Amino acid sequence: MAANRRLDQARLLKAARRTGTVSIMRRIALTAALIVLTASPALAQSFEGNWGCRDADAAKAGMLTIYGGVYGFASTIVGDTSSGTGTITGYQDGVAFNDGGLKDARGIQAGRIVSDANAGIAIQLETATAAVMLCTPR
Known about the structure:
Blueprint: H1 2-13, H2 24-44, E1 49-55, E2 60-67, E3 70-75, E4 84-91, E5 94-97, H3 101-106, E6 110-116, E7 120-126, E8 131-137
Antiparallel strand pairs: 1-2, 1-8, 2-3, 3-4, 4-5, 5-6, 6-7, 7-8
């Protein structure tokens, strides 16, 4: 009888768990998952902005601007048909060029996000067979 009384008193003193509450560990895990999911689209858009491009000989090739689903390229060569605008499809690790001067005149199909020793991040523009330009943030 005394043992039952002690158990009853211990239950009374112990804080009762409310129904519908989540443990602290689950709250932390849910919060971390939510942060990762909301940050993912922002990380995927890291290719947007202005980029200064150099060709395979490290000579200035032009300026690439990417915002939303469009791009603009201004070549350093007067009258270059690769200058102009076009559309892109964004991916987690870069972009695919759908149309426009870079795709039609130079055969560039993709721009991949790569690490760069000087700029930290760069976009490597690629044809079907080779990387032809490296663009760093401006």
